[in-house]
Amino acid sequence: MIITIFGATGIVGRHLVKQALIMGHQVKAFGRNVYTADFRENENLTLVPGALFDETQVSRALVGSDAVLSAIGGPSSGMDKTRSLGMKNIATQMINTGVSRIVAIGSMGILDDPGEGNGLMMDLADYPEKLKEADMDHYKAFTFLSASGLDWTMVCPPEIRNADPTGLYKTAVDFAPALNNPYINAGDLSLFMLNELEKELYIRKRVAIWNT
Fold first, then answer.
1. What does pTM read for this prediction?
2. Which of 181, 184, 153, 193 is nearest to 166 (CA)?
3. CATH level 3 topology of 2-211
4. pLDDT tens-digit profile of 24-49?
5. What are the C-alpha distances in Å from 89 to residues 40, 81, 145, 162, 192?
């Protein structure tokens, strides 16, 4: 499979690139700083420098690909719109280039509340205030995907730890897990995303994931 990975130089992105190559996929790693990211040379790896908001550069990175993995992120500031506007451009160019499958990272805040109340986790009164601005941008990205007609899956992790995969994780569809202080290793998050590309178990679903 030929996979374009956006956010390839971030914590999760680096795990995605490494694991995708181990699995035998052809990888196009997209980002502003891909040439300084110290990726190991691999005949199946193509470094694609570019800006996430540039329509032409994103489109070129998608031509010929079978699927997309998005690990784009950004600061927690409410002024930053990297997640939403970046996803809007990715989705638009996917439609333009005929690429239909994407697995993207969201946040646990955009999952449904597992309690008796209705609404999203980020709407709860006791939800951490410091997370709400970034979660709102994740939610806008989610709405762009939902309206796109693409075959999307949005993985919604709790705290991400920069650690290798263990294979010991659980998932839930649309609802957040009722757990105290859940977390996920970046390696396990990446493993799930790559497996989901092949298995397609959660098309047009939000997925909670956490280490056990």
1. 0.93
2. 184
3. Rossmann fold (3.40.50)
4. 999 999 999 999 888 999 999 999 99
5. 29, 12, 11, 27, 24
